Amino acid sequence: MGKTTMFLSSRQIILLILGLSISGGILLFPGRIARVFGTGGWVLVPAAGLLFIFAAWITARLGQLFPGETVVEFSRRLLGRPLGFLVSLVVVLFFLLYIPVEIRILQELVNISILRQAPSWFVSATFLLVLAYATAAEFETLAMVNEILIEITIFVGLLVALLGWRFFDPSHLLPVFSAEELNLAMFWEEAGMILNFIGYPLLLLIFPFVRRPKELPRAAVFAVTLVVLINVFFIVTTFGVFGRNEVAEQAWPGLELAKAVNFEVVILERLDMILIVSWLGAIFTTCFLAYHFAVAGLSRLFNLRSHSPLAWGLAPVIYYLSTILTNYFAWNQWLSYLSALAVIVGVVIPLFLLFVAGLSRWLLGSSG
User: Fold this and answer.
1) Are 134 and 144 in contact (CB under 8 A)?
2) Which of 14, 317, 323, 331 has its Cα between 20 and 30 A from that of 180?
3) Nearest residue to 127 via CA among 100, 90, 160, 152
4) What domains does the chain contain, in order, with CATH numbers?
5) Is residue 8 helix, strand or coil?
6) Averages of pLDDT over each 10 residues, the chain, 368 residues
7) CB-based burial label for 350 (10 Å; 0-12, 13-18, 19+)
8) Would the pTM count as exceeding 0.85?
9) CA distances from residue 191 to 31, 77, 84, 316 in whole angstroms, order as listed
């Protein structure tokens, strides 16, 4: 987080996790769930969410063991410099590789509704300039911007979902579980759904800036629980309104839901447009946070005095990576690999580091 003297409250930490988790991907999420898990997806998602809630608690526990250090410092102490460097680099790469995915979603949303004729290079390049400028600035201001934007996004998203309950049919949620509807063969293709739960790895880079380290596990668990509940609510709503089969065929279930609940009142005549505009704010917070923590991690990894040149220097790299995602197949392949990396960063690495930390303390206690 650079050399900021900012100390984060529990509320700010919760909103940071929400800001990285609640992204453009949630507009696609119900369709992915429908295609892989069928109608029972709304039951299986919270069950899977328990894993990420537990992993968030494990990650926060590391912060209590190493309150003045980030993963860059304590991984070196626990694993040695070469392996610790590798672990830190993997964490940084996760944040860095997340950004092109969200830029791709941004391009789709902008071309669908706002600037239909705008070339993709113009949309992504303009957005990247704003991101680089924001990342090069102080974190305190952007943390406050995140608080505002993510609260607006969640409010608008939940409002749209609640309005959709006028057309809700409970029978669309049945059967609760059917083995015939499971299509696990598509899991790898739709693995991008995992990213909807992975916002808490940012904890690995904020431990020195937490105001009350003792409250960190509770804040992390609360934040990821909220993420799981929001995801489940959107799945239940879209399934209940459209039915599982129709949701499985939709590219953007979230936008289709907004179109279905348009009011005749003039100001709300294009509820899907309101949803898109508010969700662009969510994409910005996700990209900014991922960009910031990638830059902050690299700055610590290579002992850079200033993160500003790195923020600008990475922009062409990110732009190039976003140009690779030119079609649905390339996008899904990227999401699948990124999801595997997300599980490594969000589940495997925290569990491994906590195990090594516990083993080290036990060995020191035994020798003493």
Assistant:
1) no
2) 331
3) 100
4) 10-328 (1.20.1740.10)
5) strand
6) 68 93 88 91 90 96 90 93 95 95 87 76 89 84 85 88 89 84 87 91 93 92 96 94 92 84 55 78 91 93 87 93 85 91 96 91 68
7) buried
8) yes
9) 12, 33, 28, 27
